[in-house]
Amino acid sequence: MNEKMKKFKIDLHCHSYFSSDGVSKPEEIVAMARARGLDGFAITDHNTCECVDYFRQTGLIREDGLPVDGLLIIPGQEISTAEGHLLALGVVLPNLKGISAHEAIQMIHARGGVAVAPHPYDIFRAGIREKVLDLLKLDAIEVFNAATTLGFCNRQARAYAERKGAAMTAGSDAHLPQAVGVSYSILEMEQLTVQGVLAGIRNGREVEENYLSTKESLRKTFYNLFRMKKRSLA
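Given the sequence above, the corresponding structure tokens read:
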């Protein structure tokens, strides 16, 4: 490692209550990130950047991409593309639900962000599957997702990334405050900034792998079912 480079712990996959299936207040995510010793996290709500706007309004995201009180929040979104979920990191986007993954990646790159395929082999969630992954210009593959129920799904993601020589990330996929920082990427950069994180992702391979506890997994499932029922009655 270059002597000027330092390692930082960044959870690249977190949801707030602005996601339809999330329950975490923005302040709860920040508090847990600090408690877990993270250097930063990405806020990646489903098809919205409302929490990014909230963090900007409250001064927790700076326009120059620097951390606030030692904690960096990376703007992002988890886009429900036509082929599956896609993480857009380092950018602010409108609701692009239903857009093709190819078009979404073009938009992300045009704005200077990075595109990461989350949980691509998770059979219980809408990941972008291998036949489509092969055709996309992704910046990284999420090789470990703490909320994945079956471990072999994460192992398949890592095997794919290794086969393709792709950069690798990890994230908690936290929908509850207690899950923030359970898993994260370890990124190298000279200075903790949004641009430094994005560059680190493009070259990243070091991740911290820990699954959600059984209690956290059950709570996540409960809230998912509860919110799905609410939407069906709306």
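The beta strands are 6-14, 40-43, 72-81, 84-89, 114-117, 140-145, 168-171, 184-189, 206-208. Try to locate this feature in the token string yourself.
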